[in-house]
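User: Structure with S-adenosylmethionine, tokens only please.
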Amino acid sequence: MNLNDKEKFDNLYSQEDPWKSKSLYAEQVRLKNTFELISKKHYHCILELGCGEGAFTSKLINIGDKIYAVDIAEMAINKAKNRYGERVNFSLQDIRDLKFEPETFDLICTIEVIYYPLPTERGKIIDNLYNLLKKNGDIIFSAPILPGYFKYDEFIDLISRKFKILNIEPVTTNLFKLGSIIKRIPLLSKTGIYELAMILTRKFPKQIARHLAILATRV
Ligand SMILES: C[S@@+](CC[C@H](N)C(=O)[O-])C[C@H]1O[C@@H](n2cnc3c(N)ncnc32)[C@H](O)[C@@H]1O
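Assistant:
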């Protein structure tokens, strides 16, 4: 599939919950672990990129005064507006051509979206995000560390070109597959298995992280 194709994303959102953030436990773990990296602070103005139907946006409501969220898929934006439209300013925008004033945001969230534009387009996107962020503002990214997405060091290099990295955290693990086998053992709870898998993954992130989140700041 041509991942830049807006129509393809629109079609995807004609299904309910296309990324399975409601039905798949591993997806809920990803969203929860990613949010934990930013949950201790309060931000005045937040921008979320590639918000989809608002699975991560619903968490941002707890830590921000003003929240802006964009996506390239019209159907996703309409669904998100129906759910959270009173608290969030949703708009249909492409992350390669964002329509905001410079130095507007205290936090920018780039969760599972930076890999859709071509590798040659990503440097310019990072430059633009730098301009949209206030000085000392935070920015969080997450992406899969899988073939066709990012290599571990490549993801870190892209972000450190412009931002000072504060924290690098695996938010899901390739051991989840192992988890699905172990969870059949009655004495172990699903939560316990995933916690255990995440402890191991934090020790060996380069080897077993599936999704990596990076928190950085504009200095
Ligand atoms: C994998 S989903 C992630 C959704 C949500 N951020 C999450 O973590 O569950 C990627 C989202 O990015 C959006 N997207 C892809 N390319 C985009 C672009 N160039 N500009 C804005 N949004 C884009 C897609 O429509 C989709 O909603």
